[in-house]
Amino acid sequence: MPSTFSNDDERALYVAIGTHIRRERRRLGLTQRAVAERTGHNIAWMTHLELGHNRPSIWQLLEVADVLRVSLLTLLPISALGTGDVVTLQRRVAQLESILESTCRDYQRVIQ
């Protein structure tokens, strides 16, 4: 199935994810270095993640969310998915929900 996301939508999504990660990290009073170390990454990776330059895997986002003590959904801002018509937005939300449900099932199997 071809992607319904444009390059601009994708860039906006990663920038928004980085912004949410930075907000949550600061809320906890953590440094980029602390989060990077707790997730097994270096500070450059964390810096690029917060700037939206990295394209983290769902697993990497789960690791970051765990360190920040937030749900994965907290890091995935729906508003960054574009401003298309309602049907397109609903389709995108449904795609994300499907991916998240599958990922959560996989994650639960891994931690058990």
Strand content: under 5%
Q: What number is the mean pLDDT? A: 82
Oligomer: single chain
Query: In CATH, what is the homologous superfamily?
Result: lambda repressor-like DNA-binding domains
**Terminal-residue CA separation:** 32 Å
CATH class: Mainly Alpha
Order of helices and strands: HHHHH
- The figure for the number of domains is 1
SS summary, helix count? 5
**Would you tell me the structural class of the helices and strands?**
mainly alpha
| Poorly predicted segments | none
CATH architecture level-2 label = Orthogonal Bundle
Gyration radius, in Å: 14 Å
Overall geometry: globular
The count of β-strands is 0
CATH fold-level topology: 434 Repressor (Amino-terminal Domain)
Sheet with the most strands? none
Share of residues in helices = 55-70%
Explain this structure.
The protein is mainly α and 112 residues long. The chain has one domain: Orthogonal Bundle (434 Repressor (Amino-terminal Domain)). Helices cover 67% and strands 0% of the residues. The protein contains five helices and no strands. It has helices at 7-27, 32-39, 43-51, 58-68, 86-111. The longest helix is centred in the last third of the chain and has 26 residues, at 86-111. The mean pLDDT is 82.
